[in-house]
Amino acid sequence: MMKEEESDILKSIEGKYRSQKQDPDVYLEGLLWSKPITYWDYVEVDTLLSLQRPRTTLEDESVFIMYHQVNELLFKMILHEIRQIAEKDDLSPNFFAERLNRISRYFDVLSSSFEIMQHGMEKEQYLKFRTTLTPASGFQSAQYRMIEICSTDLDNLIDARFKGKLPADSDVATKIDHLYWQAAGKNYTTGERSLTLQLFEERYKQAFIDLANRYKDVNLWAKYRSLPVEVQNDKTLLQAMRHFDHTVNITWVMAHYNAARHYLMTGSETKEATGGSDWRKYMHPKYQRRIFFPGVWTDAELENWGQDQPI
Fold first, then answer.
1. How far apart are CA 137 and CA 174, in angstroms?
2. How many structural domains is the chain composed of?
3. What angle do CA 116, 282, 184 make, to 5 degrees?
């Protein structure tokens, strides 16, 4: 005899598919032939574990590859949270703050994970296999560039040398040509671009332009400014905005900077990044002053952005 709760479930299933003009019996019959789900199939474990293809015989190169693959998965999680905020019409301060705090936790993981980069590989091995990576560079992480584009107005990502100097009516493509990370691969005097930047832009520039146009009015900073003043002043939301901005643009950046310094500075010698950039000035927050949400900081905080971080 069918239990009452079982009958209610079947009625709900039938109602669901009838509302879609589907025959529920077909779906129920399909359950007779379906396989049970397993952890390894659901998470695609075998696929994930097959994605490491070192270019050398050095053991720590595998650590390097897997570390960056984990980063990219976390970047995807971050973009997933940002999209929810961007697409939310009735955006409450609690929803906004909770998603920002999720993102900050992901970046907390990213920041602490640089211990793997800094102390989890033999320096001698890294300095050998990194020579096979040229012209690849970490700045070619398209997902990280997407996080930046979806977080704030492009004007806040302009190279420090050009902030406030571009024409007011500059289009998205022009602004992207002057974003701070271009400094890692462009000579602004001659206009010459490194191979690293050329390959990156051939693959992703149009996608960045399209994304920037799509998020122009719904990036995190724009969504915040669209809220009523009393909501903008919500203490929980303000704290979440500040924590996110500081975590991404100082804490995580400095963790990356210190890992690079560990491997690329030996005594008085400073090696170039694989992409050929002056990584110290490119990465350090006091130079580029990347700030997603300038309106949530005091004038003094903006003036001293990154100044307390050792070079």
1. 23
2. 1
3. 100
